[in-house]
Amino acid sequence: RAAEAAAERRAARHGASEAEDLRELESIFEDRARKKAALDANISELETLANKYGLTASDFTRDKMRDSIHKLRRSGADPRDVDNIKDFANAASGNRRDVIRAAEYAGERGGEQYLSRQGFDVPDSFHSNPVQRVSGRGQVDGLAVSRNGDEVVVPEYKGGTGEYRPNKTYGLKELSGSPAAQGAPDYVMDRMLSDERVARYFYDHPDLWQSVMEGRTRLRTDVLTTPSAGATSSVHSEYFVPTQEFIDKMSAKIANVGGH
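Structure (tokenized):
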């Protein structure tokens, strides 16, 4: 009876955690919807004013803004309209970034929740932030370690309408070899080498890196998509063996962290 009661308590905690996860994602997607509505309103206002002078909202993207504003002023457009067009265009640009970031964050949090339910912890340096991405160009989207240390997952997060495109390849910066797709072992190892947080984490956890080199801790890539709240799934997962080139270069980067 005591064992049954303990199992019931674990199930209750698990259910409560999933409910909290769902509420968090619902809130993120609601925030994205509000930002999308603000973006659509700005574009509508911009389109109306631009049409007045034979132009469209697409004439006021960041790379076209200066030329289009110059054209309006030369044509004798009402200065108030020109100022309003600039304001709407700038607001739309900011709102567009907000919408993109909200979708990214939904993918990040959905993926982190998924990994947590699978028994993985996300180190603080890889944990997502609602305001801005903690990972930059050429870095990994995240990193998660199983609670018993026998597995490291390097996820690729996709949120909202973001799609996994296995046929699109990217050049490698750190490793030799041909361009590779997101989620492919070479792509993942290359990004791990490019991301100083990874070397720093292994420097701080030398036993884990030793276990990776010896093959006791397995490496896995996992592409996780979150198109809507409660709908996170893995669309590509693959275990891979680190190459000697990767091990040598990561070991050198870890040594550099320590100033050796």
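The two ends are 57 Å apart (CA to CA). The helical segments are 2-51, 65-74, 79-117, 185-194, 196-204, 206-214, 244-257.
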